[in-house]
Amino acid sequence: MNFTDVIKLNKVFNSFEELFREIPVNDGMTISFHHHLREGDAVMFQVLKSIQKTGVKGITLACTSLMNTHDFIADMISEGTVSRIQTSGLKGKLAAMALNGGMQEPVIFRSHGSRARAVSDGELKVDIAFIAASAADMFGNANAIDGPNAFGSLGYGVWEAQNAKKTVIVTDYLSRGILRDISISQSYVDAVMIVPAIGNTAGVKEGSLKERSNPRDSVIAADVAKTIINCGIELDQSGIQMGSGSVSLQVGRYLSGYMKERDKKFKFGLGGITQDLIDMLNNGTFESLLDVQSFDPKACNSIRNNKNHHEIDVNTYANPLNRSSAVNFLDIAVLSATEIDTDWNVNVLTGSNGSIIGAIGGHQDVAAASKITIIAAPLFRNRIGVIRKKVTTVVTPGENIDILVTDFGIAVKESRQDIIKNLTDNGIKVLKIEDLYKKCISFTSEPCTVRFTDKVAAIVQTPDGKVQDYIYKKV
Amino acid sequence: MFWRSIMYVPGNTPSMIQSSMIYGADAIVLDLEDSVEESEKDSARNLVSCALKMLDFSGTDVFVRTNSVDSKHFQRDLRAVAGTCIYGIRVPKVQKAQEIVYIDQSITEIENELSLPGGIIKFMVSIESALGVINIKEICQASTRLIGVAFGAEDFTYDMGVKRTKEGNELAFARSTLALTARAYGKIAIDCVFSDTKDPEGLRKDCEIARSFGMTGKSVIHPGQIEVVNKSFSPSDQEIGQARRVIELYKKLGCPGVFSFEGNMVDLPVLKKYQRIYELYGRDKVE
Predict the structure, then answer these.
(1) Which one of A397, A438, B72, B274 is at 20 to 30 Å from A66 when CA atoms are compared?
(2) B223 and A443: CB-CB below 8 Å?
(3) What interface predicted TM-score (ipTM) does this complex get?
(4) Using CA atoms, how far apart are residues A170 and A193, in angstroms rounded to an integer?
(5) Is A445 on the interface with B (CB under 8 A)?
């Protein structure tokens, strides 16, 4: 290929048939997808169905996460198109299939930071990254803030594009001119595939934002805010990640009022970005937002128009090999848990019955890096206790957790005497986690132990690629 | 005995009962009456009885609202909760002093049967009709075991054939009468619920009105109302500080009958007001 051929290279395709002639998908390849569109994603379905038609088998699916909308993949596993899965989270039929021994090999679970590391250090070699983008131009530049299905940050896709052997942008909007805002440069893009629709952006919010009027969440949120304010960290110019659930939303509102009254500002807010966090950027609570993933399509306007709303890639967010990753500058993190044990180990992936119900997300990365990590969780959900003697699956080790805030009280790890002193000096009652455990079982009784086989259904990695824990097939 | 907020908790909903103590209400009322359908009365009674025996309410005072004395459930309700950790019972729709006597006798019988110390089970009543308001003086005098009266505005306005409004003018006479009479006979007076759970400003104004009539606290129906009610029925930081300084000066001067504080005369009635605030809110901070 000479220089003239290169500049005339047509990257734009209108059919998967043509695309696969140019960029072949072969048996045993590893292909990747991001999960920015969450439950609204339609790209994976279109790509995988097209691959299935070619008769290719044994695909390794490396996704930043998988949702309920990806249940269709279960059938593809049964008939052999897909053989292996590497992901941050798993739900629905796929989760059940993994636990029932339906996969050829164990699922590999990685945090977002761990995945960023794995694609950069070669542990995860992606042959083709199919990256949903809401807009692209004919040269291959892409973003997720233009076009009819704009969804915000393209943080996971950017790093995939830079590390995959081949990168295909999948979009439903081809710009007439060159994009003004470029998240993925044409330099990393081999093809642009035009599809009728990349998905439904209403699905972006699903699974992250919950209703706000749950009174138990309000109690937890008030105590989390109180803890943050009194734990000893100077909040002015600090970095914080708060999450996106109902508790986080309310914590944000408490803190917003507190900071405003005292003329203080957070240096940055990090993680999944909600409309509430954007409001806090606009009202001066934050100096900047670092947005690796938008939980509200309205983030598009903010990214486009507010120079302090920064789209960051996942390498910048949490790659443990990157000394400058944003999590390393966090002062406070508020995280959730499906379970926490009396050794402070946290589970966010499996439920107490052993089922896979969640996703690691950035949990491990943020907890490891933040100066203070707070777990916010109810003492029990329905009749299931959240505090256990031993969690079903260790996702984030106890050494990285400092505080547990529940609706029945606040516990601080004994080794954090500095926090205990600061809280008690400010009139906040501090309990031991064992006290909360006793309180928990006074409602729920001692939980039975779930029985598993010795067949490994999934491996949970540490951010640096070691084994954190195994998830076993249930009896 | 001082309750600013008293939260109703449906007696047939385990998830609400088990977390009822975490919201900061001064007291809760586990309800066996209006929030429980007729077909669920038995199961709710069992549930509440078990909850009272099993749960640690963490210092929150617990009442049980029984069904009214003229219902077939009253005696069963009473027997199911006697001898548990309850502070007392709350009996709805009371209209006459005779009912108070009947309640008192019923409790006494059960205390004797269970060998409980006499008088350990207290009770409050809800006044929810025109007749109840008119008879409030006799009601308050009918039992030393009666600790307070609560006002039920929904049934009251139904009885009166008037519409309930947010301004509450239709309730003014009843609220004032109940609070005045309760105060006269040493009982507490608990105001009616404010039904709109999404209007904290309206609730705050309603609390102000209730407090101006002399109500000592308010019933609430949602945890989100507790903070507003507690704040409304508490003295301000300024009032607490002033009370503390008055009491400190009073002690320093050797407890005189009359003295001057910041240019104002403090005699016994004024001193008592400050002492009440000091006892409730200022003591820990002084010592």
Answers:
(1) A397
(2) no
(3) 0.78
(4) 5
(5) no
